[in-house]
């Protein structure tokens, strides 16, 4: 039998810029970006905006128009596509269709940009559209939540929901650039703001003990949404995520997902709550459970485990939420674990901790120990209860 | 302003296997493939089949079932998704939905395969679904037309139509393997069979004079659908396409598309004919026009130009089809050229010939010379008319 072999590599690169008031007329970050990426082609840019952001920041579109009329390096499409923020835009096919139609109507081609301003959900949707329209158009992201600036908005994944399943459809497709503008965060509710912190705790726990200690030391400032502390938190968390993604397996061909520490249960908790529990909140619950497991499994020092649980509680994460607890082998989270194993093709790969800053992959999980871990989390959280519900 | 840079490479490789009767119980190509790619995961395979092929080859599904029950290296999903062949499946969202739903219902995950058997249209659709379901599942192609075995089915592009535009949606996403089974071609109509030859002539003209001479020398055998000649034609054409794709720009980030020689007008001719003219037939018309232009522009020797036009006519390509002719600056093809220029972001990049086997890129096109080129094609084809319509 004759065989022809095909083999090639594709190089991807993009920058994540940390800035403030990106559409301020004195901020050259964006105009410099377009000047430096000039290709001689006529280029257009069209914006998709999260409705929540647009309502909270009513001058946004006016500012964008003023910016592009000052710096006329690229042609701004006057048609702005506003989509509902949050999971709704990933569930509703009409949002996908509206963006596609605007791309067609405004002649956005492979030399032009689809820019998205919003939380992780809107970025996931717009990133997906950018990946499939004309087999891929250029894409810029302006994340507006802590979670999307430190994690979801800077990576390579996009997606929408279908058949009742989160991210059933999507691609791996890096953006052309990400602009993390700290001032976008000002109008966030404290609940959504804080939910982004758990991803920073997560990545610190598996990769960087010093960062974990920094978060511990700055817990009060962070809870007060202090700008400098927030800026550092986001920057370091983004950096650790980017380093990991740029490492061995950017498009997740294998099964190993250390960045998904705490996530096997988080995904199930989110769906059990019908997405009333936010992703970051569920991740905090998942971190607590897997930290307790690491202790009971004699991998992690007990005192260190307690520091982790205490930190999560100080950020008001409800780690003993009823949906996050495992009372018996019939608990829904155990069912979730089975689905997760199936999803991985039969072989489990779950990250636990052997130290603060050190994740390690396990290929099996002791269900009885998991039930005890859940109990340990409840016991530990009990004294904090009054604080949470005061 | 602080900047984090992300940079990584992704390696892609896949094989194109040339075989016959792939589901014959004695053919080990497929079972070897699964044995060699074993990862220890539970893997499934689900088939999408072109209705035209399934009708023409009524034992196909029975043979597939028998094959996988003999070689039980992977679990065969008993649900076969049959989709209409040809452009219809790329236009009709229901086909996309049916495949997606079957993926969900049968638990096809990132370790499992979606296999597609069919012409270029069904492969384009199934390739697209494979690229987006679960952010990419594994994908095998079994092309069943000359065109898809030598060109469309072995490459990295997929797509569906939307907003009345061909391939408005799609991705660049290499398959995991391609199995070119010569026996699939037996049930093709002669018209569809022959339409695939023009892509071989095209790639020979821009890359390989020896291959062009081989096609000239074997024109009669090829027209008679001789197996050995066909096998060589497909193999060499596939090889030239693969070499080009694996070269400078696999995912077409730039504007240069030498493989699209003859295609700027072909795409417009197909759409003007409401897709009654097949892709390969339109490409033959496009090759004729751009060959004539290369001669009149003093880049290509006239005698060589005539050899090319003569070869196209010997394969019965209707190179002076009314929709392919340009009588004035108001002709629809001139409008198509303008759209094409726009599509390229304002800068034209069209391949013409400076010799047989040598393409060269031009950034402008002389419209008056194009009208004369069309006239040259008509004049040349006139004596062949009776042959075409006898
Ligand atoms: N692609 C990835 O790698 C990845 C990783 C993790 C999470 N995600 C996805 O991210 C999504 C969650 O994103 P999120 O936590 O950023 O929240 P979100 O996108 O769900 O937004 C939450 C709410 O905040 C509003 N909002 C956003 N920014 C605002 C601002 N600056 N001011 C006022 N309101 C604002 C939105 O309108 C929305 O109502 C989920 O869909 C999740 O699946 C993706
Ligand atoms: N992805 C790419 O790089 C690329 C390149 C070129 C063309 N294409 C696409 O390929 C499509 C054209 O593909 P095509 O020329 O292979 O034809 P096709 O897929 O349009 O099929 C033509 C007809 O032949 C039937 N058929 C296919 N195989 C058969 C067989 N063995 N026996 C009997 N009937 C059979 C089909 O049912 C259909 O009715 C177009 O949609 C075009 O856009 C894609
Ligand atoms: Zn997460
Ligand atoms: Zn073609």
TrEMBL record, chains A, B:
Residues 196-321 form the 3-dehydroquinate synthase C-terminal domain. The keyword Amino-acid biosynthesis applies. It holds the Pfam family DHQ_synthase. Keywords: Amino-acid biosynthesis, Aromatic amino acid biosynthesis, Cobalt, Lyase, Metal-binding, NAD. Its EC number is 4.2.3.4. Its cofactor is Co(2+); NAD(+). InterPro entries: Dehydroquinate_synthase (IPR050071), DHQ_synth_fam (IPR030963), DHQS/DOIS_N (IPR030960), DHQS_C (IPR056179). Gene3D superfamilies: 3.40.50.1970, Dehydroquinate synthase-like - alpha domain. GO terms for biological process: amino acid biosynthetic process; aromatic amino acid family biosynthetic process. The keyword Phosphoprotein does not apply. This is 3-dehydroquinate synthase.
């Amino acid at each position: 039998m004759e065989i022809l072999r095909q083999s090639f590599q594709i190089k991807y690169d993009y920058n994540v810029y940390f800035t403030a008031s990106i559409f301020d007329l004195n901020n050259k970050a964006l105009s410099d970006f377009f000047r430096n990426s000039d290709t001689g082609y006529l280029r257009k840019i069209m914006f998709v905006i999260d409705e929540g952001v647009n309502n909270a920041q009513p001058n946004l579109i006016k500012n964008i128009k003023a910016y592009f009329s000052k710096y006329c390096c690229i042609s701004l499409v006057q048609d702005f596509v506003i989509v509902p923020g949050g999971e709704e835009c990933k569930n509703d096919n009409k949002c996908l269709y509206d963006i596609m139609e605007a791309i067609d109507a405004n002649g956005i081609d492979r030399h032009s940009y689809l820019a998205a301003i919003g939380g992780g959900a809107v970025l996931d949707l717009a990133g997906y559209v950018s990946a499939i329209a004309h087999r891929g158009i250029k894409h810029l992201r302006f994340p507006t939540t802590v979670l999307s600036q430190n994690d979801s908005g800077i990576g390579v994944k996009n997606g929408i929901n279908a058949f009742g399943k989160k991210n059933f459809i999507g691609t791996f497709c890096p953006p052309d650039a990400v602009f993390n503008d700290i001032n976008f965060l000002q109008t966030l509710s404290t609940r959504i703001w804080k939910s982004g912190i758990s991803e920073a705790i997560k990545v610190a726990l598996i990769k960087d003990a010093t960062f974990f200690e920094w978060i511990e030391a700055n817990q009060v400032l962070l809870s007060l949404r202090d700008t400098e502390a927030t800026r550092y938190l986001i920057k370091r968390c983004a950096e650790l995520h980017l380093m990991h993604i740029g490492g061995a397996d950017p498009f997740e061909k294998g099964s190993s997902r250390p960045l998904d520490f705490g996530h096997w249960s988080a995904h199930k908790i989110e769906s059990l709550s019908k997405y009333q529990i936010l992703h970051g909140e569920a991740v905090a619950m998942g971190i607590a459970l897997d930290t307790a497991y690491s202790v009971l499994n004699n991998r992690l020092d007990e005192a260190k485990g307690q520091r982790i649980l205490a930190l999560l509680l100080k950020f008001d994460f409800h780690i003993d939420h009823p949906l996050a607890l495992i009372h018996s082998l019939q608990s829904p989270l155990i069912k979730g674990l089975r689905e997760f194993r199936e999803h991985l093709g039969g072989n489990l790969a779950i990250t636990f901790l052997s130290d603060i800053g050190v994740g390690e992959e396990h290929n099996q999980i002791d269900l009885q120990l998991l039930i005890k871990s859940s109990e340990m989390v409840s016991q530990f959280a009990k004294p904090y209860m009054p604080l949470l519900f005061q």
